[in-house]
Amino acid sequence: EDFKPAQVLNSLKWPDDHLAINRKLHFSMAKDDDNVHFEIDSLTGDLYLSKELDYETVSHFLLQVIIKDYSNNPPQNSTVFLSIDVEDKNDHSPYFQDDFVVIGIEENVPVGTLVYTFNAKDGDGTFLNSKIQYSLEMSNVGENPFLIHPLYGTLTTASPLDREITHSVTLRVSAADQAINLTDRRLDSLAVKIVILDINDNSPHFISLPLSYVMEDVEVGFLVHHIIAKDPDEGRNGQVTYHILSGNENKAFVLDKITGLLTTAQPLDHEIQERYSLTVMALDDGSPALSATQVLTIVVLDVNDETPIFLKQLYKTAVHENRDPGEFVIKVEAVDRDAGLNSLLQYEILPGTGYEKFKMNSDSGELVTAASLDRETQEVFSIKGSSCHDLGSPSRSSTAQLYITVLDENDHSPLFAKTQYQISVTEDLEEGSAILELSASDEDDGLNGEVMYSLIDDTHGAFAIDSITGSIVTAKALDRETKSLYTFRAVASDCSTRLPRSTTVSVVVHIEDVNDNDPVFLQNPIRAFVPAKTAVNETVATVRAEDVDLGSNGAIVFNLMTAETVFQIDVNTGAIILREPLTSKDFSTQLLVTASDQGVSPRTATAMVIIFTEEQEEEISFRHSLYEVNVPENSAAGGH
């Protein structure tokens, strides 16, 4: 069909046996034939192509050629039918109906699903020139998820589709004929965009963190967290709303379901609840809807809004005196409901009376002594300023009171008011009479300060002491003339059950005289031999008497019981003095002499003085040779 016009196609020749020289032949084609494509030379019979052939339009021509032979008369006509087959030439390219095709397919179709059938046309007439073979080419880099059948042009899925990975695929589909000569083959191509249609095959997934922090003092409506979930699906399949499923029972938060903004709905308090675990759901709008959940932890951060509180407002304790510094006294404790530094407490003692005696561990709250304590100096410490403060900014603090009692140790001995007691008592005291009230004080407390009294040394049974009152009393009748001075020691002991202490004091008791003894003559009767010629005023005899009493009670004066002119007695010395001459050589007389003491109630004794001259001697004899008398027991001394 690609034969060029004006070229000789063929020549009609008269058969050789019919050839004749000088024959006049005329060639023509019948008018009714579709011979617009052919012409014949009327003289030579050469057949020419006058118009290009198109196999696809007409593939066969049947021409009727009329030959007139003018050699005969009349001319003779002959008819020849000429059959012309037009051979196909690959002069048409395959073509598609459209230049660009957009195809939509859902992403969940199985592998092998028919996507589209391409139908390219080829104007060539013969089989191979018009036989089309399809091929596929991706315009973008990656694995081609589609496959085209080379003969049928069916486009199918070759691998699973995922719109979220690949939204669309642009392909170029080619259609090529199968001309025998490869160089003659022709092709056409078509741009194809395959849009992967979304189905709701993806659940929302959270991209916001599952942890958020918020200060406890934020106002209501404060933005706590922006919850964000993404859904790679399209349209309503990818539209996400937010909902709180659990953890918000006290309605502390409110969640905007569209924006995902979580805000406070009530005031927060770290001390009541320091964290919330909200189960949040992200729900898409697909059908059926898909969802995802996330546990959102909201940590309520502490603000120093709580004041430390001591477990007790008054701490009472006791500590022994005389212990070395560092002795444990008590541990105070406070609680602070805040957290972190806001709840870390520091303890201290505020200045006050006696606070310097103690030291407090600032971290533990343990109170120890800073010096040795003396209960007798100060028994009670009332410290009004045990303070604790947290480490927040600004710091908050509180105080408690400490009441510390110092327990007694037996570190003091009883003390008497004097180092020695000297007293004087009369010897006529009755048995059981109190002569001295001893009092010893002990600064210790309790049994350590309770004093008991006793006597040491021998008092010869004369004295006893009341162990409770310290009163010293006579235990028997006293007699100065027997013992005029008692020296002994009194002991004051405390009642400590462990290592009691005592103090000793010296007691000197002077027995004062009472006129309880009569004068006693050293000789009775007294015989005095006086020469007859003794001169006047000469001492003829001396009486002597003693009185064991003291002082005036023992000072003796002498007197004659009856008035006497011949003799006179010296009241002080007891000397009997001759006042008149003796009248005879055989003179004799008896004088009754009294010896009296000088007590308030004088006591007197009588003696007989027998005075005689040398020539006269009077015999003295008892009236009886035996005297018998009965004396009751327990008779008082000095009784008659």
Automatic annotation (TrEMBL):
Subcellular location: Membrane
Gene Ontology biological process: establishment or maintenance of cell polarity; heart morphogenesis; homophilic cell adhesion via plasma membrane adhesion molecules; tissue morphogenesis
CC terms in the record's Gene Ontology section: cell-cell junction; plasma membrane
Domain Cadherin: 1-96, 105-206, 214-310, 311-416, 417-521, 522-634
Keyword Transmembrane helix set for record: yes
Pfam family, one: Cadherin
GO molecular function, one term: calcium ion binding
Alphabetic keyword roster: Calcium, Cell adhesion, Glycoprotein, Membrane, Repeat, Transmembrane, Transmembrane helix
Protein name in UniProt: PCD23 protein
